[in-house]
């Protein structure tokens, strides 16, 4: 019981700190850094749901991030109030996801992987060709641009994501997803409706991803439309989830912080896009040697510490 | 009008042969090892660039250089398997697939960076003297280079089929693909089989890369689009169908060329359309087994 | 010839075999009897190198087999015909047999062994070019045994060869197994059909829940009260 209370109070404390952060500091770099981290938390938790809990490797997550981003951007810039624009973006992402998921999930896992990959790439190419010009915030909006509301929206998004994962983790849905992840055939014979659970996981996951895209679209001053479909938007959440700890609630949180810090540090010392290559190597090493992520490392160490008294 | 369509058809076959060659390696690797090499296009790119190097640095005619590229990429692929994928290949099927997907995905980020360092992000093309030349039959234009590409692809694929059906080792590959446990019990060294299969598949990708460099251009980011093409072709043909992959490649090439007439920049979406149709109507592909 | 000593084998986290020990002498036919799930298949798979024992050892002709890769074990002369027959369904019958001879010794003696197999199972010659998956159950079992034989083993292990087959076909196959033993191949047989197993085996071990609970000469086991009651029903032989 005390463990739970400890967790709740720590979590609550951190949350309170995050809420009042813009009030206690005006340093734009801290706010920007936090804002980005919160967005990464939202995006990585979204992948965590489909990839970590349900065990369906989605390599085209960028498709859903991008769909949310572009839909929100254009609707919002066309004077639709932000909340509706965000919702529309998230729903657009989910719609495309189900378009692939419904035919693909009836078959072997491989088809889903290929389908999402293909979708992401096609969207990127089509958007790149049809919308080559960057979208820049118009003057009136630019004049009143402030990180603070964007920070709070990102915070809401992150909290929503963590709450969703928490809810899934402690629900029958989560149990079903994990069963599918561990052994799909066994789950099927235990009576788990494989198709339904996979689709639900996909819907939730892509909804949150679309939301992340929408928030990103709201946050960025200028966006190259094709860029939001770039593979980095799949890669970043995937590596965050793996580094932090796949299929856990806290994993993506730790991973996001670690990732943003590492990226920041590397961009200072490494040329151009080379940090991508470093992340690629790091990722492969994690997959091969540390599949349970940092969380597992921490758990093992805390056990050691506890053992020493 | 007819001539226009016929020429489109020819152009489609030119590209389609390359699609097919790119897909055959992917199909081979998946069929035998149950590993979906989502970084296939990256190896294809490397092969292309090596062919480019041999041509521009040593003046080696690209068609002459093909065997060298094939050998180098075979060794590279086999070594790569040993170092990176071997650990993963020992897991049981689902986990093996997932982990290999993730690793392949990680390669997405590494290879383009390496390529940018070695060859810059400028577009490169392999342009020997006979590059633009063509001959005409019945008013249709047949380029020397694309024709050479089709010929090479055909030879390679026929050779592969012969290897798989007539040689002992080739048969052991097929056996491993059908029932790896039985293969083990027959005394087949699965590890070594996997390593050689992967090397072969990568080698085929490299060959395709060189031919692509002759017809189109090479860029550090060409890996993903070509992996995508190969994936669609493999789905269209049916998982594990190797000869079928070539034919499916031709089909995709032709369909794309014809659709480009009225779809313009959206032509790439044809791949997605084909993918969805296959999934809903005939998941085992055109030539796959149920 | 084969000495299994105190092996423990796990299937994942589940313990399947407890402290199993038994021997097989050259030229013998030894049967492993037991009901479903008793661990018989696990035992054979362990000897064949598909599983690694957590404890204990498997020694064949003085060489330790456990921890060796399966292809090495085939080379050393131990061959397993698994329960699911272990055939390649889309490859022809002949190709299946040829792949059975993949190891060096098998390849060297391939033609000779093929003649032997065709002598035992003439139908395999007739169906030579047919895909193995189109064969009937009994024919597939014959193919599986023939394939195992093509590796020229010193010890041939068979996992439930009678499974799902009609009595006449079973007789056919066991006749062949008897012949194979007569030319010098030792046999380790796992069977649920106790009667037929004991009719061909010199000795038998009874496995229950992953442990060996009884063993002896076939003759004695056939008349043993406990065995008769548990496995042979109350019919007299």
Features:
heterotrimer, A: 309 residues, mainly alpha, ABC transporter involved in vitamin B12 uptake, BtuC, 14 helices, C: 237 residues, alpha/beta, six-stranded mixed beta sheet, 10 strands
Look at the helices and sheets of chain B and give the structural class.
mainly alpha
Would you tell me the structural class of the helices and strands of chain C?
A: alpha/beta
Strand content of chain C: 25-35%
What is the number of domains of chain B?
Answer: 1
Low-confidence stretches of chain B: none
- Architecture of chain C, according to CATH? 3-Layer(aba) Sandwich
Name of the CATH homologous superfamily of chain C: P-loop containing nucleotide triphosphate hydrolases
Q: What is the subunit arrangement here?
A: heterotrimer
Largest interface: A-B, 43 and 42 residues
Order of helices and strands of chain B: HHHHEEHHHHHHH
Distance between the termini of chain C: 32 Å
The global form of chain B is: globular
Number of strands of chain B: 2
Number of helices of chain C: 11
Total E-strand runs of chain C: 10
Q: Gap between N and C termini of chain B, in Å?
A: 41 Å
Proportion of residues in helical segments of chain B: over 70%
SSE succession of chain C? EEEHEEHEHHHHHEHEHEEHH
Can you identify the CATH class of chain C? Alpha Beta
Describe the largest sheet of chain B: 2 strands, antiparallel
Q: Spans of chain C of 5+ residues with little confidence (pLDDT < 50)?
A: none
